Amino acid sequence: MTTPTRAVVLGGGWAGMLTAHVLARHLESVTVVERDLLPDGPLHRKGQPQARHVHILWSSGAGIVENLLPGTIERLLAAGARQIGWNRDLVTLTASGWQYRFPATTYAMMCTRPLLDWVVRDAILSGGRIEVKQGTEVVGLVGDRSKVSGVLVRDVAGGEPRPLEADLVVDATGRASRLGRWLAGLGLSAVEQDVVDAGVGYATRMFKAPEGVSGTFPAVMVAADHRTRSPGRFGVVYPQEGGRWLVTLTSTRGAPLPTHEDEFTGFAKMLRHPIVSDLIGVAEPISPIFPSHSGANQRLYPERMAQWPQGLLVIGDSLAAFNPVYGHGMSTAARAAEALDRQLAGDDFGEGGTQRVQRALSEVVDDPWIMAGLKDIQYVNCRIRTDDPRLTDPDTPERLRFSDYVADRSIRSPKVSEVATSVLSLNTPQKALGDSHFLSLLRTDTKYPELVEPPFHPDELEMVGLKPPGNAANGVLG
Ligand SMILES: Cc1cc2nc3c(=O)[nH]c(=O)nc-3n(C[C@H](O)[C@H](O)[C@H](O)COP(=O)(O)OP(=O)(O)OC[C@H]3O[C@@H](n4cnc5c(N)ncnc54)[C@H](O)[C@@H]3O)c2cc1C
Predict the structure, then answer these.
(1) CA contacts within 13 A on the Cβ side of 347
(2) Ligand 1: which residue has its CA nearest to atom 22?
(3) pLDDT reported for residue 73
(4) 134 CB under 6 A from ligand 1?
(5) What is the model's pLDDT at position 4?
(6) Three-state DSSP class for 175?
(7) pLDDT below 70 — which residues of the chain?
(8) Tell me, what DSSP letter sits at residue 100?
(9) Which Gene Ontology MF annotations are present (predicted)?
(10) Pocket test for ligand 1, best of 21, 32, 34, 182 (most atoms within 8 A of CB)
(11) Cα separation of 257 and 233, whole Å?
(12) Cβ–ligand 1 contact at 324 (below 6 Å)
């Protein structure tokens, strides 16, 4: 296959838009097909129900977006987003205990998902090089077993399916992608899929932060302890633009999530520390509770197919979706868009080009896949369908013990924390946790004493009308 000239991107969400932007740098024509009508502002829409829930964009993803679309971070900050210095601006109870607030070595963008998507989409579409067919649904692929030559689309409002020609089709329709069914329509067999499903669910409610809370109030997170072998319960209070806090309560299979308003605080009180329920208690609820049950890790392996049609790629959540607790989906999609850009900047697709490009996209999802998988298999009642040896072979318990040991050190040792945070934020490959530099840090790095209280500055708690405990400034080193 020579370099394609006409691409159709299926889905105009986060991955679809970044992919379209990258394609438009190399190809003559790029069309995005999106089922929803895309709002002209930071508004919710039907096709993106996850946007009701907390989202962070790690620095790895934010940096790529900034390179592709200079000025994005400034625009987000101007609209009220926070750039949270990790771990400086965060009060976290991890499975191992309270995390010291070391000086920030990386960051995550924190704001509502509609704001994030709108700022990025607006910058991409203002380039004028991408056509968007909104209110249009993809219903199938056009082509045969060896080559895709377009898609079948129809208006959501009604009407017969019609073909849309393209020599490159990229599926970015998200976690609920129908790619398997569309491939069957071409006579191809199913793509192998792995699933690690801890039964993660979210219940989220927006609050107005107390009057006078400044833009420096930290993000707060209370995590579950997987080592208890009981269903996990998490809670976060994340600052959002407009003086709001988005509170998400999360559980793994076996712990029912709150659906009614009176259960919300009750669930927060069951977390391993009452800080989330204390903060809810001083804030004013301004939205209903929104549920989500899209928390399974699921990964396709198109690169393993004996036959894969030329001109078809899969990216974003369609390719691999992760337990959202780790905040990896959007950064992974941005990293895949960057990988696609690199591939397209090469000579041309050439012989076997589609498979080579798809392999490059699939490599990007491997680190977040294994990180999430290794954590989630430890939750009681986790359902697993995978033959990934890293999750199933006899050494797995050893790997889990090492990962727990790193987590124990990382909350109290600044240099260990720096490397672990860099891996968690997808800035550094996971294999760095096994190299000699890191192993020697585990021996030599300072080990601060265990924290017994959440590491707030006293003035932070006073800001929200809560009483600081006696030794409240402990643990704030950043
Ligand atoms: C509760 C929750 C919390 C999350 N938190 C985080 C987080 O903190 N950080 C993070 O990085 N990631 C997080 N994620 C993951 C993140 O939301 C996804 O990784 C990201 O949205 C993936 O983008 P996407 O474009 O692949 O899919 P989507 O954003 O789902 O977009 C898919 C698009 O395709 C369209 N579409 C679907 N089918 C069709 C069709 N047949 N025809 C036309 N259009 C179609 C949809 O309308 C939609 O616009 C979270 C996910 C969930 C569920």
Answers:
(1) 6
(2) 317
(3) 98
(4) no
(5) 87
(6) coil
(7) 1, 347-348, 470-473
(8) P
(9) monooxygenase activity
(10) 34
(11) 9
(12) yes
For residue 330, how far is its CA from the centre of ligand 1 (angstroms)? 8
> Angle, to 10 degrees, between the axis of helix 353-364 and the axis of helix 366-376?
40
Q: What integer pLDDT is reported at residue 351 of this predicted model?
A: 74
Question: Which distant-in-sequence residues (6+ apart) come within 8 Å of 434 by Cβ?
Answer: none
Q: Determine which residue's CA is closest to atom 8 belonging to ligand 1.
A: 55
Taken as a whole, the chain contains a residue count of 478
Rounded to the nearest whole angstrom, what is the distance from the C-alpha of residue 389 to the centroid of ligand 1?
A: 28
Ligand 1 pocket test, candidate residues 9, 43, 48, 426, most atoms within 8 A of CB: 48
- Over residues 42-56, the pLDDT tens digits come to 999 999 999 999 999
Instruction: Give yes or no for residue 140 CB within 6 A of ligand 1.
Output: no
What is the helix (H) or strand (E) element at residue 116, kind and residue range? helix 113-125
**Residue 117 alpha carbon to ligand 1 centre in Å:** 10
Identify the pLDDT of residue 340: 96
- Write out the DSSP string of 347-406: S---TTHHHHHHHHHHHHTHHHHHHHHHHHTTSTT-EEE---HHHHSTTHHHHHHHHHHH
- H helices of 126-235, in order, are 179-185
Residue boundaries of the structural domains of the chain = 6-55+113-194+295-368
CATH number of this structure's domain 6-55+113-194+295-368, picked from the four choices 3.90.550.10, 3.40.30.10, 3.50.50.60, 3.90.79.10: 3.50.50.60
pLDDT given for residue 40 in this prediction: 95
Tokens matching residue 175 = 């976690």
Please give the Cα distance from 17 to 456 (Å, whole number).
39
Q: How far is CA 469 from CA 256, 274, 457, 462, 477, in A?
A: 32, 13, 10, 11, 17
